[in-house]
C-alpha cells in the first residue's frame, strides 16, 4: 500500500485554508472509521481458526503464485505488498490473528500480489507514477513560491502541475485498491477460508479501508484547489 497525503500550507493564511481543514477532517474521519471497523471485526474469530499469515500463504498457493514471500512486520495496519522484492508484509495485528478482519486484510494484500502476477495495468501505472509524483510534490511549493516572488506565472503554473501529480497518483490508486479488495472477497468466498456469514464482515473491513484512499484523494484535490485559487488571486493582484 502507498501514501501521498498530508501536505501543509501554513505560509498562506487566508479563508481558503478552510479547504485544507476540510481535507484533514475527512482524512481523520476515514482513518478513525477504518480503525473502529477493523477493531470491531478483529474481535470476531473465524470459524476455520486460520491466521492471517496462513490465509495469505494459502491464497498465494491457490493462485499459483510461488515467488512471493510472506513476513510479519511491526506496526498497526501497516500491511503492504512490495512488487519490487515480491514480499507480502503483514502487521502484527494481522499476521498472527485468526479474526475475520485479519484474514480480510491479508487477502487484500494477496489481491495486490495477484494483480502483479497478472500484469494488472493500473498497478503498473501506479508504480510508474510513484517516482514522478514524489519529485513533483517535493518541488511544487518551492516553484510556486519562487514564481509568486518573481511574478513569474510560468513557474507558478509549473508548480501547480507538479502538485497535481499527487492527485493523479491518488486517482490511479483508487481502482488498484478497490480491485484488490474485490479479488480478495472472491478468493475468500471461493476458497472457503471464511463462511458465508463471515464474508460480508470481511467486506465491511475492506470497504472501510478503501475509504481512506478516497479521503486522501479528496484531501489532495482540495489542497490543489486552494493553490489554484491563491494563484488566481496573485495573478489578478
Automatic annotation (TrEMBL):
Keywords: Membrane, Transmembrane, Transmembrane helix. Coiled coil: none annotated. The chain crosses the membrane at residues 12-34, 128-148, 154-176, 205-231. Pfam families: Zn_peptidase_2. The keyword Transmembrane helix applies. InterPro entries: Zn_peptidase_2. The keyword rRNA processing does not apply. It comes from the Bacteria. This is Neutral zinc metallopeptidase.
Amino acid at each position: 500500500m502507498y501514501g501521498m497525503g498530508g501536505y501543509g500550507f501554513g505560509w498562506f493564511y487566508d479563508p481558503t485554508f478552510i479547504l485544507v481543514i476540510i481535507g484533514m477532517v475527512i482524512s481523520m474521519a476515514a482513518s478513525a472509521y477504518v480503525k473502529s471497523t477493523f477493531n470491531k471485526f478483529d474481535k470476531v474469530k473465524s470459524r476455520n481458526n486460520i491466521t492471517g499469515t496462513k490465509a495469505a500463504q494459502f491464497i498465494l498457493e491457490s493462485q499459483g503464485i510461488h515467488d512471493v514471500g510472506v513476513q510479519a512486520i511491526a506496526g498497526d495496519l501497516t500491511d503492504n505488498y512490495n512488487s519490487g522484492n515480491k514480499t507480502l508484509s503483514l502487521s502484527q495485528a494481522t499476521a498472527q490473528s485468526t479474526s475475520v478482519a485479519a484474514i480480510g486484510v491479508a487477502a487484500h494484500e494477496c489481491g495486490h500480489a495477484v494483480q502483479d502476477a497478472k500484469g494488472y495495468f493500473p498497478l503498473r501505472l501506479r508504480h510508474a507514477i510513484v517516482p514522478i509524483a514524489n519529485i513533483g510534490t517535493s518541488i511544487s511549493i518551492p516553484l510556486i513560491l519562487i514564481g509568486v516572488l518573481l511574478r513569474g506565472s510560468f513557474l507558478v503554473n509549473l508548480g501547480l502541475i507538479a502538485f497535481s501529480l499527487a492527485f493523479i497518483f491518488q486517482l490511479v490508486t483508487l481502482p488498484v485498491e478497490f480491485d484488490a479488495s474485490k479479488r480478495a472477497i472472491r478468493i475468500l468466498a471461493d476458497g472457503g477460508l471464511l463462511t458465508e456469514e463471515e464474508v460480508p464482515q470481511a467486506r465491511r473491513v475492506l470497504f472501510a479501508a478503501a475509504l481512506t484512499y478516497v479521503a486522501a484523494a479528496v484531501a489532495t484535490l482540495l489542497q490543489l484547489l486552494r493553490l489554484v485559487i491563491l494563484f488566481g488571486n496573485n495573478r489578478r493582484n
